[in-house]
Amino acid sequence: QVHLVESGGGLVQAGGSLRLSCAASGRISSINAMGWYRQAPGKQRELVADMAGGGSTNYADSVKGRFTISRDNAVNTAYLQMNSLKPEDTAVYYCHARGYYYAVPLQAWGQGTLVTVSS
User: Fold this and answer.
1) How far is residue 106's CA from residue 19's CA, in Å, rounded to a whole number?
2) Beta partners for 78?
3) Are 58 and 49 in contact (CB under 8 A)?
4) Which of 35, 44, 100, 118 is deepest in the core (most CB within 10 A)?
5) pLDDT in tens, 12-23
6) CB 66 within 8 A of CB 48
7) Which residues lie closer than 8 Å to 117 by C-beta, 6 or more apart?
């Protein structure tokens, strides 16, 4: 079983910054991709950003130029640096990971961390 633990959410004023962290642990031998999703009240969960093992990244149009995803593969941790935050960025942010435990594919979700941006 894989565990993802997120941290770094909180309340920030519009224009401010936050940095989210997601640490993976447990029965995982390799991680192919780690990413961040978010779900605002009354809306579906959407991709914010993800990063493949080779380093390629993918961002939602709404966060391009403001958010940056990064990974420290040595400690199986992903980060999301969020700058120039807007009230519409308010959501619960979830970490997601895909990988393998030896030859067994697996994926996991974190418990979510709340980001609130005040106007």
Assistant:
1) 26
2) 22, 71
3) yes
4) 35
5) 999 999 999 999
6) no
7) 11, 12, 13, 14, 16, 85, 86, 87, 88, 89, 90
Residue 83 and residue 77: Cα distance in Å, rounded?
Answer: 20
Whole-number Å distance between alpha carbons of 54 and 89: 28
Distance CA 52, CA 14 (A): 30
Q: How confident is the model at residue 29, as a pLDDT?
A: 81
Q: Which two tokens stand for residue 73?
A: 């593969």
Residues in the chain: 119
**Are 59 and 36 a contacting pair, CB within 8 Å?**
no
Q: What is the DSSP string of 19-35?
A: EEEEEEEES-SEEEEEE
**pLDDT tens digits along 36-62:** 999 999 999 999 999 998 889 999 999
